[in-house]
Design goal:
Blueprint lengths: L2 E5 L11 H15 L3 E7 L6 H4 L3 E10 L2 E12 L2 E7 L1 H4 L10 H19 L5 E5 L4 H11 L9 E6 L7 E3 L2 H4 L14 E2 L2 E3 H8 L2 E4 L2 H6 L10 H6 L4 E3 L28 H12 L10 E5 L8 H13 L8 E6 L3 H13 L4 E5 L3 H10 L2 E4 L9 H7 L3 E5 L2 H6 L13 E3 L4 H14 L3 H13 L5 H17 L5
Parallel strand pairs: 1-2, 1-6, 2-5, 6-7, 7-11, 11-12, 13-14, 13-16, 14-15, 16-17, 17-18
Antiparallel strand pairs: 3-4, 4-5, 8-10, 9-10
Length: about 500
């Protein structure tokens, strides 16, 4: 049986700050269906819910070298939905509020990367493939090369490194190379870890892993260009033959309008009328006038510039005033982020209480209800490696309006008025006028009940489960194991 170990900083439902947590929480479950013994290794954070911590069983205790230090590590195991999760316990590093953003993140994730490798022998689980995710685990492949490759147990382990978001790279002072990672200066080169006289953890994963993947086909091309490459495009072009884009999926058991306990009325592609009741109940819950005839636009997002909030700030007030020559609508937002955008939506909900509802925070139950009740899902991102929101929205028959970038381009088929095909709406260039035109087109089409229902059913019929993408990952694992790094 093929053995794969995921190493990541988060996984739903234990800890989640974004799409990475969704992927690590759902992809292993799908991979197990194809006969892979896949397990997951995470830090044991303080804020993992108590009901999970109480079920954990200690499997090993040992020390981990962190430069000249020896730090405690406990490995605790929990089986969830058929997948074994290992939690690496060190109270000094992980018993804190939040998960990232500390002054010593370089030390915390140097420790975690080394602990992942040290734990393998302790658990007597030597994977065929170490599948590492984002900068937090970028040093795993480097440390494997430097400290473990000569050992018989580790000799045949192959590595796959997945980029979930290239913008966040884990860049730290160069002193971490020797002081925390125990590496010599031959690793501090332009082809290695050196990044403007600092150490870059993401770059380590890109340079030393046997294969690289990212979370959509378009994003795998975009990050090889200077605009999206975050100053690593040269390295990615150099390794393009070992780079593959595989679009993310979503958990179809969790996101299922036919069985979702968080929504008021179940529905599916064969009986879609239940969506109307969800809309009515959502409007009532949020204090909006209950009007089925008005299209309801939703945003569930981090409220930050790269998510397109600057475009929305430019045109939404004018649209609400009726100055953009488009039909009337209601607008719902759920999320947190930069204070100026939080305040923008608060102000708009105060000024237009019959048109705008703003919930500044995050509520998973409300999120599900918004997907089920809204008609249109707005996601005008500057860049989007894959995106999860548009996939969930289509599953719930909420038609997305997206900018044509990354996974948004790969997953949303724009409406074609001549053929009737499509699963949403899109615009190409990152500017407010194009976004406004796309919104106006969607609002106008909403007036045509027959066409709108057809598009809604098109979207709900698309399969964005992990089934196909998991097979692509399976093929990458088999390629690594069968041919080895030298010929992949």
């Amino acid at each position: 049986m093929l053995k794969v170990l995921f190493a990541a900083a988060e996984a739903a439902p234990f800890v989640k700050t974004g799409g990475l947590g969704d992927v690590i929480g759902s992809l292993p479950k799908e991979l197990r269906k194809s006969g892979i013994d896949v397990r997951v290794m995470l830090p044991k954070y303080q804020h993992i819910p108590a009901q999970f911590q109480q079920q954990m069983v200690c499997k090993a205790q040992f020390t981990v070298p962190v430069g000249w230090r020896q730090q405690y590590c406990g490995v605790e195991e929990l089986e969830y939905q058929g997948v074994k999760f290992y939690f690496l316990d060190n109270q000094y590093y992980f018993q804190r509020d939040g998960f990232y953003g500390y002054y010593d993140d370089g030390e915390r994730f140097s420790y975690f990367s080394r602990a992942v490798l040290e734990s393998l022998a302790q658990l007597n689980f030597i994977p065929d493939v170490l599948h590492c995710h984002d900068w937090h685990t970028g040093m795993v492949s480097v440390l494997l090369d430097a400290h473990y490759r000569h050992l018989p147990l580790y000799k045949h382990i192959r590595t796959l490194f997945t980029i979930h978001n290239l913008r966040y790279q884990g860049v730290f002072p160069k002193e971490v190379l020797t002081d925390l990672l125990g590496l010599d200066w031959r690793y501090f080169t332009i082809d290695g870890l050196e990044f403007y006289d600092q150490v870059n953890f993401m770059k380590g994963g890109l340079a030393y892993s046997d294969l690289i993947s990212t979370v959509s086909k378009t994003y795998s091309w975009e990050i090889q260009q200077p605009y999206f490459g975050e100053q690593l495009d040269g390295l990615l072009r150099k390794r393009k033959d070992r780079l593959k884009g595989i679009v993310n999926g979503i958990d179809y058991e969790l996101y299922n309008p036919a069985a979702d306990k968080n929504i008021c009325s179940s529905y599916d592609v064969h009986r879609p009328d239940g969506k109307r009741e969800n809309k009515v109940k959502l409007q009532a819950r949020l204090g909006l006038p209950v009007r089925e005839d008005l299209p309801l636009i939703a945003i569930i997002s981090r409220l930050v510039g790269p998510k397109g909030m600057d475009l929305i700030e430019e045109v939404l007030p004018e649209m609400l005033e009726g100055r953009q020559d488009c039909p009337d609508f209601q607008f719902v937002v759920l999320g947190t982020g930069e204070s100026k955008y939080e305040n923008l939506f608060r102000q708009l909900s105060w000024k237009y209480p019959s048109k705008v509802s703003a919930t500044i925070g995050f509520d998973q139950t409300l999120a599900q209800q918004i997907y089920a009740g809204a008609d249109i899902f707005l996601m005008p991102s500057l860049y989007e490696p894959c995106g999860i929101g548009q996939l969930i929205a289509m599953r719930y028959g909420c038609l997305p309006i997206v900018r044509e970038t990354g996974g948004l381009l790969d997953t949303v088929t724009p409406y074609n008025q001549y053929t009737g095909e499509g699963t949403g709406f899109s615009f190409a260039n990152y500017n407010a006028s194009e976004m406004c035109a796309a919104i106006r087109s969607a609002l106008e089409l909403y007036q045509n009940d027959e066409t709108w229902k057809k598009l809604m059913l098109n979207a709900m019929s698309r399969n964005f489960s992990w089934e196909e993408s998991a097979q692509e990952y399976h093929q990458l694992y088999q390629l690594l194991v069968s041919k080895g790094a030298s010929s992949t």
